[in-house]
Amino acid sequence: MAKVTILGATGNVGVFAAHTISEIPYVSDMLLVGRPGREDFLAGCCRDLSDSFAARGTDVRLSYGTSLADTKDSDIIICTAGVPRRPGQDRNDLAFENAKIIAETAETIGRSSPDAILFLVTNPVDVTTAVALKYSGLQPRQIFGLGTHLDSMRLKSLIARYFRVHVSEVHTRIIGEHGDSMVPLWSATTIGGIRINSLPTFSGLPAQEMIDAVRTSGEAIIRDKGSTVYGPGEAIATLVKTILGDENRILTVSSYIKSEIHGIGDVCIGVPARINRDGVFPVPLSLEEDEVAGFRESVKKIRKVTADVMERLEAAR
Ligand SMILES: NC(=O)c1ccc[n+]([C@@H]2O[C@H](COP(=O)([O-])OP(=O)(O)OC[C@H]3O[C@@H](n4cnc5c(N)ncnc54)[C@H](O)[C@@H]3O)[C@@H](O)[C@H]2O)c1
Ligand SMILES: O=C(O)C[C@H](O)C(=O)O
Fold first, then answer.
1. Nearest listed ligand to the Cα of residue 126
2. I want to staple 169 with a disulfide (CB 3.0 to 4.6 A). Which of 10, 165, 280, 305 is the partner?
3. Could you tell me which residue ranges the Lactate/malate dehydrogenase C-terminal domain spans (predicted)?
4. Residues 32, 14 contacting (CB under 8 angstroms)
5. DSSP symbol at 38
6. ipTM of this complex > 0.95?
7. What residue spans of 176-282 are helical by DSSP H?
8. Per residue in 55-95, pLDDT tens?
9. Which residues, at least 6 apart from 50, have a Cβ–Cβ distance to it below 8 Å?
10. In 3-state terms, the chain is what percent helix, strand and coil (to 5)?
């Protein structure tokens, strides 16, 4: 059984993630952490969640706190703390502001929970994953970000609707930045186990429209309802369950790669990774030429944003 901690638990994503995670059978304890002054809200969340447990037959010990010291002995710490983007902003516009929060948080967690797995949701997630890796001192396998898992789910749902098949029949991946330079892997997309490009209907697939819809999905939801919540919340729970259940699923998350993909590496970015109780292990890949070119561009972009942020963080210390 495991203790799962959510940082930023008073936020839109944090609150819903607490609900989805409480449904995972391996979770025995859940700690909700918010900023000082938010104690009443956190207490209310705990009471409200507890009410739902009776109906569901769930038995999770809930607690809340406002200090990172409370996170000690967590098995997984999920970080949703930080500012979200407003309509018209790019996720990378949040880079420095959120990196400052993550650097401080990661330093404390690295000292107090050296065996934990640290899961970043805060955007821009590829950059915050790299910042957490550097400042926590934890091993690369212990740190990952939501990355392009949510984008892959968005594409999966569009493909399933287009082909009028159940979503479970579709396997697809998007790699690279959780952002504009993301790269769809049509070569790794199957429907009912059959490669999508060997289906006669593939030629009519509005592939570019689909990927454009995925690229702009977060922005469109934020414009219409203020924040993305249900997609990220369910995606977070899938990953927590994969870790705690030692499931060895291959999911596309932001992870540190050395040179696993065509020799490209030394960056945190969305890649397929085998995920289990020990953490996250990127899977070496062989891609089509245009996919490699797209991935190189995406890596180049993320490396630059990450390097700029690291430099500013060091200068600010
Ligand atoms: N990676 C993804 O796919 C994905 C999906 C959704 C949201 N996000 C990101 O998650 C983050 C949270 O989104 P949200 O919609 O829940 O935002 P929100 O504003 O509703 O919540 C933000 C949370 O962070 C906390 N916070 C803000 N500044 C802080 C600071 N200086 N120190 C400590 N805590 C602080 C707030 O108290 C609150 O709990 C954003 O960065 C957003 O972009 C990422
Ligand atoms: O788009 C955002 O800013 C939130 C998140 O990254 C998302 O894709 O839902």
1. 1
2. 165
3. 148-310
4. yes
5. -
6. yes
7. 207-215, 217-225, 230-244
8. 888 889 999 999 999 999 999 999 999 999 999 999 999 99
9. 62
10. 50, 20, 30
